[in-house]
Amino acid sequence: MVLGWIFSIFLALCLACLLIMIAWKRTSKGGKLPPGPTPIPFLGNLLQVRLDAIFQSFLEFQKKYGSVFTVYFGPRPVVILCGHEAVKEALIDQADDFSGRGEMPTIDKNFQNYGLAMANGERWKVLRRFSLSTLRNFGMGKRSIEERIQEEAGYLLKELHKVNGVPIDPTFYLSRTVSNVICSVVFGNRFDYEDECFQKLMKMINESFVEMSKPWAQFYDMFGGIMQYFPGSHNHLYDLIEELKDFVASRVKLNEASFDPANPRDYIDCFLIKMHQDKSNPNTEFHLKNLVLTTLNLFFAGTETVASTLRYGFLLLMKYPEVEAKVYEEINQVIGAHRIPTVDDRSKMPYTDAVIHEIQRFADIVPLGIPHNVIRDTHFRGYLLPKGTDVYPLIGSVLKDPKYFQYPHAFYPQHFLDEQGHFKKNDAFGAFSAGKRICVGEALARMELFLYFTSILQRFSLHSLVPPADINITHRITGFGNIPPTFKLCFMAR
Ligand code: HEM
């Protein structure tokens, strides 16, 4: 009996040593990493962070270690950059060094380094160049992106008239309309709002974003290597993304069946043309896997980001009705009651522009940013980050940098206005990140935000079910994403 115990303890010790050695071998790449909280073997800094408020934990570390520090995600060292200056020095001044994509264990199994957003090296360069130029070309084709958004906003306004004055949760009204814009670019058509398959896709995208932001996902990012063999929510997230992937693959098949290279209808067709041109090149990046996963990146990112920002925006406008009133006044002066808003109106509407920037700053929908990776040994602020080190540019800390924003934690549109009421640019407005990986959809997203906000507020006023003082504007979940609180409101026709 005693011998059995001793043997078990001996075995457990050997196993622990083995794990520590594996972890150490995996992570020690030499170099000189910035200081940070002391890790313990294998667990790293797990016991010093709050998984339900990881961003706040990082801000606590910033107070002690400064704006560049190292945190161990389990056995893996990750360098965290806080505030506008550190992020700018890395992503802009040393753009190439920091241009790699870091690990995201929660979704890496789905993407396996394929598709624009998760790719690295030559694959990423080729996919990024192609995607940017194709998105741009669709804007110059028969129907401009602006026209697509205006048309889609028109469909939304019709829906809102149907529920005039009835309390609704805006979540899926907004995601369906926003998603249809990117759908028309990548799949060549919009979906009927009542289409059941489309509704299911919207729910899956929303649920994936929420799941990625829950505490388990932060835990999984630290211990993905082991956790993948256990049951849990990560399997659900994996299944959700696989189902979205299957949908995109089925759309690619549809395109292939009616494909005419002389007449590309959408992003998928343009990619298929490249695949045909490159079919004798064994090293081409234009293949089915990259087509499906890049299209999924665009579909996913093009839906949830803008929809969440609009949703948060409406909540903030109800909390601060005087801001909504001033936006409406500007709409009335510049656009009037009947003309459809255009992108050209934006430069004549500094207050509205400032409000939209402030909504994005306050909503801060991707507070941790998406992890980067240094593609070579990199000297940075006196440290040496070995090639392959993951780096988190904390976008939330840039958007709330007290050096650049007078009231970082308040909703204050004057952050983007000068004394004369002109729009004032702020270099720390980094909602779309910066440098070589900067959001591919920035121009599209900015157009959508302006056209949706102005089209809706031109026709409807917003009514909260509770007095403004009781409106809760704190994030419902905070993690990879900041998820706005759930709420209902009434859109009242003007
Ligand atoms: C309010 C709206 C949006 C916000 C706040 C936002 C924010 C971001 C951020 C922070 C990144 C990470 C950049 C980095 O790695 O440093 C990103 C990347 C990306 N976004 Fe957006 N995004 C928005 C809308 C869109 C839209 C509409 C699309 C689709 C056209 C899109 C497609 C992408 C893609 C494909 C990437 C990966 C780029 C790469 O890895 O090279 N995003 N976005």
Write structural notes for this entry.
It is a single chain. The chain has 494 residues and is an alpha+beta fold. It has one domain (26-493): Cytochrome p450 (Orthogonal Bundle). Helices cover 52% and strands 8% of the residues. It has 16 helices and eleven strands. It has helices at residues 2-27, 54-65, 83-93, 105-111, 121-140, 145-162, 171-186, 196-212, 215-227, 233-257, 267-277, 288-319, 321-334, 350-363, 395-399, 442-459; strands at residues 68-73, 76-81, 100-101, 372-373, 378-380, 383-385, 390-393, 460-464, 477-478, 482-483, 489-493. Strands 1-2-7-4-3 form a five-stranded mixed sheet. A two-stranded antiparallel sheet has the order 5-6. Strands 8-11 form a two-stranded antiparallel sheet. Strand 9 (477-478) and strand 10 (482-483) form a beta hairpin. The longest helix is centred in the middle third of the chain and has 32 residues, at 288-319. The N and C termini lie far apart (82 Å). Mean pLDDT is 94; it is low at 17-27. Bound molecules: protoporphyrin IX containing FE (HEM). Protoporphyrin IX containing FE binds at residues 101, 116-117, 128, 182, 297-298, 301-302, 305-306, 309, 365-366, 369-370, 395, 431-433, 437-441, 444-445. Protoporphyrin IX containing FE (HEM) is lined by residues 101, 116-117, 128, 182, 297-298, 301-302, 305-306, 309, 365-366, 369-370, 395, 431-433, 437-441, 444-445.
